[in-house]
Structures are given as structure tokens and as C-alpha cells.
Amino acid sequence: MLTVEDLTMQFGGVKAVNKCSFTINEGTITGLIGPNGAGKTTTFNLIAGALKPTSGKIYFQGQDITGKATHQLFHQGLVRTFQIPHEFARMTVLENLMVVPPNQPGEAIWNNWLMPKKVFDREEEVKARAEDTLDFLQITHLRDEYAGNLSGGQKKLLELGRTMMTDAKLVLLDEPGAGVNPTLILKIRDMIARLRDERGYTFCLIEHDMDMISSLCDPVIVLAEGTVLMEGDIHDIRQNKAVIDAYLGGGAA
Amino acid sequence: MDLFYGYFLYAISLVTIGGIYAILTLGLNIQWGFAGLFNAGIAGFFAIGAYSAAILTTMPTDRHLGGYEMPYIVAALVAMVASGLIAWVIGKICLRLRSDYLAIATIGIAEIIRLVFKNEVWATNGHRGISEVPKPFEGLPQPWNDLAFLAIVGLIVLAVYLLSERAHKSPWGRVMTAIRENEPASHAAGKNIETFRMQGFVIGSMIMALAGAMMSHYLKFINPAVSEPIASTFLVWVMLIVGGSGNNKGAIIGAFLMWFIWSGTELVLSTIVQNIPPDLLSYLPADLSVRLAYVRIFMIGLLLQIFLQKYPSGIFPEKRPIAR
Questions:
Q1: Which residues in chain A are closer than 8 Å to B166, comparing Cβ atoms?
Q2: Does the residue B158 lie in any domain?
Q3: Do B182 and A87 touch (CB under 8 A)?
Q4: Cβ atoms of residues A77 and A172 within 8 Å
Q5: What domains can you pick out in chain A, each with its CATH number?
Q6: Per residue of chain B (324 residues), what is the pLDDT tens digit?
Q7: Does the distance separating the beta carbons of A79 and B171 come in below 8 Å?
Q8: Is residue B48 a part of any domain in this protein?
Q9: What global pTM score does this model have?
Q10: At CB < 8 Å, which residues of chain B contact A?
Q11: Number of domains comprising chain B
Q12: Vertex A159, ends A157 and A162: CA angle to 5°?
């Protein structure tokens, strides 16, 4: 579904991503792990179009998407979340979700006067979908709360919720479990699995919580120093000497 | 009786100019309140509107460009389109800048516009300005002419308010707010940030030009002083911040309130100075009446401080509509 070829990103003298190549297959939940500074988030930023790579190619569904803008990729079904929640603080939780869906004619200002009926009808659909999403996330009680007032965990849920407001094909999740309490991590994990099974989303997620990785992700890609160190089943990865040295540490084996 | 009539006429002019400021503040509210664009060059767009309307409606004269004698509505529309086009060009260059840099760029552009109007004497008659700008209903007897003009200003304020309110509540306004709140997340939600920002910037600038056109008809005279930043940029910002940025009602209330204070202090202070006993006056600085102008600016600054402390989000804070 997504192929990365020799991807390189240089910031000044630092090669944050260095000739990195991997593939994400349709229907998988691919884990992306590695030590801090391995280039995981930079890789996400490159795939999602937030950064333009120094060199290398990215193909999504057979199409070259290298250097395309984030909003264009969204319309092709490639959606992302952020490591630090990026909520719309002074908008309600419901509005945070309602702003996402495409094809709202009312986003062209004049259509609000030219075709109010179409705008209204689409608005009803969008609202129904947002309410379903709140229901799925189990945060319906926060519907009219300003998103800036939510707790860290609730913001993470909202972050996931925004990806559900469009017909996504590939969802990039940047540390969905970071700073979240253990019971909520389990809930988020189950939600991700359900979204894959029920809606057919493909996921790629960065995570440091090894329980979440091992119970959810197959395959797992290990990045170190900007390139792929190893790729495969989590059990093999846990046995691998190089991965233990670079990331997991002696105790994990 | 004459005194009361004088105060009555003063009150009409106070509300009329307050209304013109309300239009300006509504324009700024679209740029700053909705879209988060820091336009520090309001005076430039205001001047474009004022000069366009003046040049397009005046009788033929050899002092400046003009003699088109266009109807008011056509002139106002042309003024808005001209301002919108200039905003579009500026936006193409500056909207990608971070907000603080946009502020610096717009200050510079407003200065350029001011200097062009001041120095292109063939078109604008330089610092002597354009006089005999026609005014709607000026043939009517006093005070009906002023009241009729006030009615037009009132209708425009109402129309801009209603359109702006509808836009704020619409999906368009929602995207604008989202971009203001969080740019990367809006981008990740598939919104083309540059397009939306440009729309907010251009629409706001067109409304500012409309206010400029109204001002030039009202005063029947326009010179480069209209684009002095104190009265046309700084005061408008204070109006929006005091009223509540992001809230259209707040923009209007803030505009009237600050204009009443700004204009009222002039009347009150000059009345006080005129009534100081002569023997006391000899102890005071000789140029007191000149210095009073600066006291007003000081007072506006002080008032802004008080309002920012007491009402950090303005008298009417922004309220995002809650969907039923």
C-alpha cells in the first residue's frame, strides 16, 4: 500500500533519515519502533507531506506522492495524528470532529448563500458521523466541552477520532499511547484493532509501549540512526542482538 | 435651544463615525478574530477605499485625477474590488509568513500606500487632499441630510454584521477557526490553509475599503491623514480587543465605545481647559491645549490596559456556536 524508497532527510549536518526503505502492506498494523532520534517522526512527517525529503521516493497505492502537500494526501486517504495532541482548543469536541470531513460545500463561503440546503444536508450527515465517532470513543459526555479543557488522554482519543471522520485508507499514528494511563492504553489498542477489522483501515504506528506493540503490530519495523535496522515479527525482533543493543536493552530478551 | 441642537448634531456625527469604525472593526474581526491574521496596516486599505471613492465620484477638476462622477454604489464596489486585489497581491507574498512577520509586512505596506497618496500629486492632489467629494442626501435640509447618511451607515453595519455572522457560523467559519487554532492539524484534516487565509484577508480588506469610502463621502474631503496609523490602525485594534475579537457583536460594541471615549474625551478635555480660571491658567503650561491631544492617546492606552486586565477576551468573548 505504501512503499518508501531510499528516503533521506538532512537537517543541516544531521541526516535524520538516511536511505530508509520499507513497505506497509494493506490491512496490517505496522509498528515503527526505535530509540529517540532514530527518525521515526521525521519519517512520518515525510510520508504525510509535512516535510519534503532531501532525496528518495514515496509511493502510495502505486502513485508517487513524494513532496505532495498534507491536505492533498488527506483527500487520497492518507491521514495522520500527532505525537503531541493537536486539538482545536477553542472549539468544542463535536466541532473538532465536524471540521474534518471533506465535500462540505459550505467550506466555500459563497455556497452558504447559494446552496444553503446542500450545506445544511451535508452538515447533518457530518454531525451524525461525529456523534457516532464520539460514541465509539466513549466520550459523548464531552460533546460540547472546549477541546482545550480535555485531559491528556481525552485529547489522544480526540486525535484518533479525527482520523475516523474521513474515509481513510492508511492512518499514521504517532505515539497514540504516549502519556496515557494503562487502562486507557488498552482501550485505545482495542479501538485501533476494531478500526482495522470493521473499517479496513491500514495503520502504521510509532509507539514505545512494548505491550501495545507486541499485542497489536505485525510486522514491526525497527529504525535506528535514520535507517531500517530490522523488520519482522515482534518475537524475532525481541531476540535480535542488534535491536537489544540499540533499543530494547538487555532486560527485554 | 441652539446649544441642544448643536449637541444633537454632534451626537449624530458621533454615531455616524462610530458606525464607520464599526465597519472597519468588523473587517479586522474577519482577519484577526476569524483567521488569526495580524494586519497592522488597516489604514492602508481604509485609504484605498477612501481615495477610490473620492476619485470616482468627484466632479471634473484639474487638481487631481477624477471627474468620473460615478454612482455611489458603483464607486464603493470598485473601491472594494481595488482593495481586494491589492490585498490578494500582498497575501500572495506575505501570508506564508509567520503572524508576527505579517504584522511587520503590513505596517510597511500601509506606509507605502500612504506615501503614494501623499506624493502622487497628479492623482491625489498630495497633502492638500481631495475636496468636494459628493455626499448622499446632501441636498436635504439639516439635520435630515445627516440623519439620512446615518441611516445608510446603520444599514451597512447591519448588513456586514449579518453576513459576517452567517460566515462565522458556517462550515467556512469553522475551518477558519480551526486554522487559527492549529495549523498543522487543519492541514492534516485536508484543508488548504493558504486558500482559506487568502479569503479571510481579501474579504476583510474589502470591508475596510467600504468603511474608507463611507468616510470620504461623510467628510466630503480626504487627505493622506486618513491613513495615519494612530486613528486608522491602532484605534481599530483597540476597538476589536476591547469589544472581543472573534465576536461580531463585540467588534461593533467595541468600535462605538472606543469612538465615544476617543471623541468624547476631546470635547470634555477642551471644555475643561476653556473653563480654567485665567489666574490658575498662568501656572499651567502655555501649550496645554496642544498637549491635550497626547493626553487622549495616553488615556486610550490606559483604558486598553484596564480592559485587558479585567476582560482578557474582550467584553463579548468569542463563542463558537454549539451545534444542537
A1: 112-113
A2: yes
A3: yes
A4: no
A5: 2-87+150-252 (3.40.50.300)
A6: 688 898 899 999 999 999 999 999 999 999 999 999 999 999 999 999 999 999 999 988 888 888 888 899 999 999 999 999 999 999 998 888 777 888 898 999 999 999 999 999 898 888 899 988 999 998 888 889 999 999 999 999 999 999 999 999 999 999 999 999 999 999 999 999 999 999 999 999 999 999 999 999 999 999 998 888 888 899 999 999 999 999 999 999 999 999 998 888 878 877 887 788 878 877 777 777 777 778 778 887 888 888 889 998 899 998 876 555
A7: no
A8: yes
A9: 0.91
A10: 166-167, 170-172, 174-175, 177-178, 181-182, 184-193, 199, 203, 318, 320, 322-323
A11: 1
A12: 110
